[in-house]
Design brief:
Blueprint lengths: L11 H9 L5 H10 L4 H15 L11 H5 L1 H10 L7 H15 L20 H13 L3 H14 L2 H15 L5 H16 L4 H4 L1 H7 L9 H9 L16 H13 L6 H10 L4 H18 L9 H13 L6 H9 L5 H7 L10 H5 L6 H13 L19 H15 L4 H12 L8 H14 L7 H14 L5 H10 L2
Amino acid sequence: MARPVAYPESIEPLVRFVEETPPEHIVARTHDRLAAGTPVKDVLLASALAVVRSSDLPPGHHGGPLHPLAGLHAVRHIAARLPGEYARLPVIQNVAVANKHIHSPAMGPFILPDAQPVSEQDSVEATLESFRMAASRGVYHACDHYYLYLLQRLSPMQVLEHLLHVAIPKNQLDDHYFLFPVFTWRALEYLGWEYAQYIGRAPVRYVTRPTMPASLDDVDALIATFGLLERDLRVATGDDETAALTALADEIGRCHKFSEVPGMLARALADGVSLEGAGEGLSVGGSTLFLRSQTGNPMDVHINTGANTRRYLLRQPELSLRTKLRALLVWNTGPEVLMAQRMLAPDLQPEPERVAALPPRTQDELLADIEALIARLPVGERLPKANLATWRSTDEVKQAAALAQQYANAGYAPEALIALLGRIACRDNFTEMHALKHHQATYEEFHATRPSLRWRHLVAAVQAAAISHGRIQDVYEHAAEVMGF
């Protein structure tokens, strides 16, 4: 007879708090616990464990533990940066969305059962073969057991490598097959690897569920054409690559067919650009494409989060070169990345002439104008009736990006703009962590990119903030009442 998974007694009461608190009380009671001194790390761990144990993954990718777990990396960093009561808002948002999913009839009632490690002949290789076979057939219950065995025999990054063998091809079907495990591993770096036996089961079950076939034949052929596995590829970037990376980023940012991007990256690597440099060029080019995009869908942030997670993988010494290359060269295939291709402006944005026409402002004036403009968005209906994929950004959104470009051109302090964007991002609960993930991704990319190219990320972050602001923010409004904002 199956039994629910049991957590350590040190965290079980806090997990039950997340599971059992009625949704109408979760905001105030989470705030009270944080105000009373419960550590942020404990609250986020309880949120993760609760949503994994008591919320099922519905069809598609909206619901269950996916977005609460994928948002943890961003939440913990943004909470650490924001001052005062604002620091509690990202944490409250995460707990609230986990609690909402737990209480949703579309995702529960559900209890993750206790499971034991299962091997084939107590052999890592034989178990991996069975794991791959089960994953190819969508037998995710078996994968769940094999995962627990592999977690005892391999390092966490080695386990992620084998999970990515399944996840990377499926990126073509849904970006989240790739993003979910990578974001979860980044969360586990913070929460502790001892919790991988519980929290890691959610992305394993998601990634290995049955789907239509997905092949990497085109990607592997590109790798072979340029001999990327036979070359002694440079790993670390440096100042000597600035010209080459600027050219690569501009080429990506000006393209009209995203299917051209893998060839650009492979050619750059064959010409001597480092792995880190290729990731940086993709990231900057991606922010350029995001700025060209005229989407009004606040969920369409995976151009940036996808580049950010790939740069994270490129830094991992335990991952194989083949896995790194495959991950890099399928960035363009995600359906939520490709959505932007259908709404690209013909040339770079924000338009230089629009920016040049803006009156001069001090740093504080410009920050105030950006905040005021975003605060009154979206214009028109609060939630348009049409499908999200058809939403288009208003001119006010593009004006916000122009103001951000003026801020960049003036050389004003990035920290002040980042703090403003953090406060704006943690008001959103419509996107279920997408706004927070995009903000954290652009923050990391800004700091990981050379000075001559980095500002494209923060301009993109302003555009994203303008797109997502004001859709649904009832968690923030409730929290603001509790905090006395």
